[in-house]
Each structure stands twice: as structure tokens, then as C-alpha cells.
Design a protein that fits this description.
Blueprint lengths: L1 E9 L4 E2 L2 E5 L5 E5 L10 E7 L3 E6 L21 H14 L2 H17 L2 E8 L17 H13 L2 E6 L4 E3 L2 E2 L12 H5 L3
Parallel strand pairs: 1-5, 6-7, 7-8
Antiparallel strand pairs: 1-2, 1-3, 3-4, 9-10
Length: about 190
């Protein structure tokens, strides 16, 4: 078991100070007290406080690949949601399964390192990149990649496959959205 000592630790309705924490090899809490455990004399000292882990309740991992690409614009071009959306569509069309795995693993590792324990991934990147191939042979490939990426870094994940049929209110989808679109409920269900 590994033991830690924090200046304080937030419980449901109060602070525990000092806080001695014992965690087993699986990362499961086994000891929590403001007193040292009798059987242990050395601790990994944490010069700070411990808070409950955070939850990222809305993520689109592939969009991490566009960081810095939608925030800068050519001179005299005002950026708004629509310019951001175009950058997002370009990214969505370009990301391969291998790239998605690298992007998601890096993003999820960053979340984990910053104190997140869970991510809710709103997953709408369903179809293959190529314009003439709509589905991967394994239709759940991209969702499986996201789950694998989260598991690899020890982050819990809730995968929420999104059902897209339209491009806007009352309009058909745009060609740039082709990786998102499900033509029927049956097609959507095939992704999970």
C-alpha cells in the first residue's frame, strides 16, 4: 500500500486536516484519517490539499487536434462560431483512426494529470474518412478507439454516440458533415 499525507482533504461536508491516505496497488482507497496509521512511518508528502476528482461532462476528443487553428484568422476577417465550425469540419474530415487514438490518448492523459477521473465523450465521428467509403468494416472502430484511449491512461469514460441527420434546422447535412451523419435509426444503433 502507498501512503500519502496532505495538508487537508475535502470530504462531503467537512475538511480533514491533516489527511493521511492509504491506497492499494489497484488505486483503491484503503485508509483515510487525520491520524497516522500505526503500521506505517514513511509517507509521500503532498504539499497541498486533496479534492474530489473532476468530471469532464462534455468532450469531443478529435477537436483537440484543432487547438490553435480556429483562434487565428487572416487580417480583416472576423472570427465567429461559423469560422470555428469550418475549422472543425476540416479537422473532422482529416483525422484517421490512428490519429484519433493519438489525439484522444494525449487529451485524456492531460485530463487525468489535471485531476479529472471521468470524461463524457460526445462521439459523432462515426464514418470513414474517404468520401466514397461511408463505413469502416468495424462500424464501432472509432468509439472503441476512444474507450481504449481513456483506459490506457486510467480515465473513466462514458461514450455517448450522437445521432446526426441534419446540417442545420430544417436543412440537409452539408458534405463536410458526412462523417457524422446517420441516415436512419438502424444505422445509428449499429455504431454501438
Amino acid at each position: 500500500m502507498n501512503y500519502f499525507k496532505f495538508k487537508a482533504l475535502r470530504l462531503k461536508n467537512k475538511w480533514l486536516s491533516p489527511a493521511f491516505v492509504g491506497v492499494d496497488e489497484q488505486g483503491i482507497l484503503q485508509y483515510l484519517s487525520d491520524e497516522k496509521p500505526v503500521e506505517k512511518s514513511d509517507f509521500l508528502l503532498k504539499n497541498g490539499i486533496a479534492l474530489p476528482a473532476f468530471v469532464n461532462a462534455h468532450s469531443h476528443a478529435f477537436q483537440y487536434a484543432m487547438v490553435g487553428r480556429a483562434e487565428t484568422h487572416k487580417n480583416h476577417i472576423a472570427g465567429d462560431f461559423w469560422t470555428w465550425r469550418e475549422a472543425m469540419y476540416r479537422t473532422a474530415l482529416a483525422v484517421s483512426p490512428t490519429q484519433l487514438e493519438h489525439i484522444a490518448t494525449y487529451l485524456y492523459a492531460q485530463m487525468r494529470n489535471l485531476g479529472y477521473a471521468q470524461v463524457v465523450e460526445f462521439h459523432y465521428l462515426h464514418h470513414a474518412q474517404a468520401e466514397n467509403i461511408q463505413k469502416y468494416e468495424n462500424e464501432t472502430l472509432l468509439g472503441e478507439i476512444l474507450i481504449k484511449s481513456a483506459q490506457k491512461v486510467g480515465l473513466g469514460i462514458t461514450l455517448v454516440p450522437i445521432f446526426y441527420q441534419k446540417g442545420n434546422f430544417g436543412t440537409d447535412f452539408y458534405p463536410e458533415q458526412r462523417r457524422f451523419i446517420c441516415n436512419s435509426l438502424e444505422e445509428y444503433i449499429s455504431f454501438f
